[in-house]
Protein backbone atom coordinates (compact mmCIF):
# COMPACT_ATOMS: atom_id res chain seq x y z
CA UNK A 1 0.00 0.00 0.00
CA UNK A 2 1.33 3.41 -0.95
CA UNK A 3 1.57 6.29 1.49
CA UNK A 4 0.74 8.64 -1.37
CA UNK A 5 -2.82 9.36 -2.37
CA UNK A 6 -4.23 7.67 -5.45
CA UNK A 7 -5.30 9.72 -8.44
CA UNK A 8 -7.98 9.61 -11.03
CA UNK A 9 -5.36 9.97 -13.76
CA UNK A 10 -7.46 11.78 -16.35
CA UNK A 11 -9.48 14.11 -14.14
CA UNK A 12 -7.02 15.26 -11.49
CA UNK A 13 -9.31 14.21 -8.64
CA UNK A 14 -7.63 12.73 -5.59
CA UNK A 15 -9.23 9.51 -4.42
CA UNK A 16 -8.68 10.17 -0.71
CA UNK A 17 -9.90 12.74 1.81
CA UNK A 18 -6.44 14.18 2.58
CA UNK A 19 -6.41 16.58 -0.37
CA UNK A 20 -5.43 20.04 0.80
CA UNK A 21 -5.21 21.72 -2.58
CA UNK A 22 -7.05 24.97 -3.14
CA UNK A 23 -7.94 24.25 -6.76
CA UNK A 24 -8.37 21.22 -8.96
CA UNK A 25 -5.12 21.46 -10.94
CA UNK A 26 -2.56 18.68 -10.71
CA UNK A 27 1.18 19.11 -10.79
CA UNK A 28 3.00 16.91 -13.32
CA UNK A 29 6.68 16.52 -14.19
CA UNK A 30 7.49 16.10 -17.86
CA UNK A 31 10.77 14.16 -17.68
CA UNK A 32 12.73 14.33 -20.92
CA UNK A 33 14.85 11.29 -21.79
CA UNK A 34 17.11 11.36 -24.84
CA UNK A 35 20.62 10.68 -26.07
CA UNK A 36 23.04 13.37 -25.02
CA UNK A 37 24.30 15.68 -27.76
CA UNK A 38 27.96 15.07 -26.90
CA UNK A 39 27.51 11.29 -27.18
CA UNK A 40 26.09 11.51 -30.70
CA UNK A 41 28.45 14.23 -31.93
CA UNK A 42 26.11 17.23 -32.10
CA UNK A 43 27.70 20.68 -32.00
CA UNK A 44 26.24 23.88 -30.53
CA UNK A 45 25.34 24.87 -34.10
CA UNK A 46 23.52 21.54 -34.59
CA UNK A 47 21.62 22.17 -31.36
CA UNK A 48 20.49 25.73 -32.21
CA UNK A 49 17.13 24.71 -33.78
CA UNK A 50 16.32 22.48 -30.79
CA UNK A 51 17.22 25.27 -28.35
CA UNK A 52 14.94 27.67 -30.24
CA UNK A 53 12.14 25.08 -30.11
CA UNK A 54 12.59 24.68 -26.33
CA UNK A 55 12.54 28.48 -25.92
CA UNK A 56 9.22 28.67 -27.80
CA UNK A 57 7.82 25.69 -25.84
CA UNK A 58 8.74 27.28 -22.48
CA UNK A 59 7.17 30.58 -23.58
CA UNK A 60 3.96 28.77 -24.58
CA UNK A 61 3.78 26.98 -21.21
CA UNK A 62 4.40 30.27 -19.41
CA UNK A 63 1.79 32.16 -21.48
CA UNK A 64 -0.75 29.43 -20.71
CA UNK A 65 -0.06 29.92 -17.00
CA UNK A 66 0.85 26.26 -16.41
CA UNK A 67 4.65 26.43 -16.07
CA UNK A 68 5.90 25.97 -12.50
CA UNK A 69 9.61 25.53 -13.29
CA UNK A 70 12.00 23.91 -15.71
CA UNK A 71 15.53 22.59 -15.35
CA UNK A 72 17.95 21.44 -18.04
CA UNK A 73 20.53 19.06 -16.62
CA UNK A 74 24.24 18.94 -17.32
CA UNK A 75 25.50 15.86 -19.19
CA UNK A 76 25.27 12.64 -17.19
CA UNK A 77 29.08 12.47 -17.08
CA UNK A 78 28.90 15.36 -14.59
CA UNK A 79 26.66 13.40 -12.23
CA UNK A 80 27.63 11.70 -8.99
CA UNK A 81 25.54 8.83 -7.66
CA UNK A 82 25.18 7.93 -3.97
CA UNK A 83 23.77 4.60 -2.83
CA UNK A 84 23.65 2.97 0.60
CA UNK A 85 22.24 -0.41 -0.38
CA UNK A 86 25.00 -2.27 1.45
CA UNK A 87 24.52 -0.35 4.69
CA UNK A 88 27.04 2.40 4.08
CA UNK A 89 27.14 5.19 1.51
CA UNK A 90 28.93 4.41 -1.75
CA UNK A 91 29.77 7.21 -4.17
CA UNK A 92 30.12 6.67 -7.92
CA UNK A 93 31.11 9.28 -10.49
CA UNK A 94 28.81 9.36 -13.47
CA UNK A 95 25.33 7.96 -13.94
CA UNK A 96 24.09 4.90 -12.06
CA UNK A 97 22.40 3.33 -15.10
CA UNK A 98 24.21 2.69 -18.37
CA UNK A 99 21.55 3.53 -20.97
CA UNK A 100 21.48 5.32 -24.30
CA UNK A 101 18.72 7.70 -23.27
CA UNK A 102 19.40 9.81 -20.18
CA UNK A 103 17.29 12.19 -18.14
CA UNK A 104 18.11 15.52 -19.74
CA UNK A 105 15.69 17.87 -18.05
CA UNK A 106 12.28 18.42 -16.54
CA UNK A 107 9.34 20.75 -16.96
CA UNK A 108 7.00 20.99 -13.95
CA UNK A 109 3.49 22.04 -14.91
CA UNK A 110 0.13 22.62 -13.16
CA UNK A 111 -2.73 21.42 -15.34
CA UNK A 112 -6.25 20.07 -14.71
CA UNK A 113 -5.54 16.41 -15.50
CA UNK A 114 -3.42 13.82 -17.31
CA UNK A 115 -5.05 14.61 -20.64
CA UNK A 116 -3.83 18.21 -20.40
CA UNK A 117 -0.35 16.99 -19.37
CA UNK A 118 -0.37 14.65 -22.39
CA UNK A 119 -1.27 17.54 -24.69
CA UNK A 120 1.72 19.52 -23.41
CA UNK A 121 4.04 16.48 -23.56
CA UNK A 122 3.13 15.92 -27.20
CA UNK A 123 4.27 19.48 -27.95
CA UNK A 124 7.61 19.03 -26.12
CA UNK A 125 10.41 19.26 -28.71
CA UNK A 126 12.32 16.35 -27.12
CA UNK A 127 9.50 13.98 -28.12
CA UNK A 128 10.93 14.14 -31.67
CA UNK A 129 14.24 12.50 -30.64
CA UNK A 130 13.57 10.94 -27.25
CA UNK A 131 10.72 10.26 -24.86
CA UNK A 132 8.70 12.32 -22.41
CA UNK A 133 7.76 10.56 -19.18
CA UNK A 134 4.76 12.17 -17.49
CA UNK A 135 4.71 11.65 -13.75
CA UNK A 136 2.24 13.17 -11.26
CA UNK A 137 3.80 14.95 -8.31
CA UNK A 138 2.77 13.24 -5.06
CA UNK A 139 4.32 15.64 -2.53
CA UNK A 140 6.47 18.74 -2.55
CA UNK A 141 8.26 20.66 0.18
CA UNK A 142 7.81 24.37 0.79
CA UNK A 143 10.19 26.32 2.98
CA UNK A 144 7.44 28.94 3.45
CA UNK A 145 5.13 26.26 4.88
CA UNK A 146 7.94 24.36 6.56
CA UNK A 147 6.36 21.09 5.53
CA UNK A 148 5.59 18.61 2.77
CA UNK A 149 2.24 19.07 1.06
CA UNK A 150 0.21 17.83 -1.89
CA UNK A 151 0.42 20.49 -4.61
Descriptive account of the structure:
It is a single chain. The chain has one domain: Alpha-Beta Plaits (2-Layer Sandwich). 20% of the residues lie in helices and 30% in strands. It has helices at residues 44-63, 114-123, and strands at residues 26-34, 67-72, 80-83, 90-93, 102-111, 131-136, 140-142, 147-149. Strand 7 and strand 8 form a beta hairpin.
The CATH superfamily title: Dimeric alpha+beta barrel
| Rg (C-alpha, Å) | 18 Å
Low-confidence stretches: 1-6, 14-22
Proportion in β-strands: 25-35%
Main pleated-sheet profile:
4 strands, antiparallel
User: Count the helices. How many?
Assistant: 2
Which whole number gives the mean pLDDT?
A: 84
Strand order across the largest sheet? 2-5-1-6
Termini gap: 21 Å
Counting copies of identical and different chains, the oligomeric state is single chain
Task: Could you tell me the CATH topology label.
Answer: Alpha-Beta Plaits
**Tertiary shape:** flat
Give helix and strand order, one letter per element, not per position: EHEEEEHEEE
Percentage of helical residues?
10-25%
Entry keywords:
151 residues, alpha+beta, Alpha-Beta Plaits, four-stranded antiparallel β-sheet, two-stranded antiparallel sheet, 30% strand, disordered N terminus
Could you give the topology of this structure?
Layout: E1 26-34, H1 44-63, E2 67-72, E3 80-83, E4 90-93, E5 102-111, H2 114-123, E6 131-136, E7 140-142, E8 147-149
Antiparallel strand pairs: 1-5, 1-6, 2-5, 3-4, 7-8
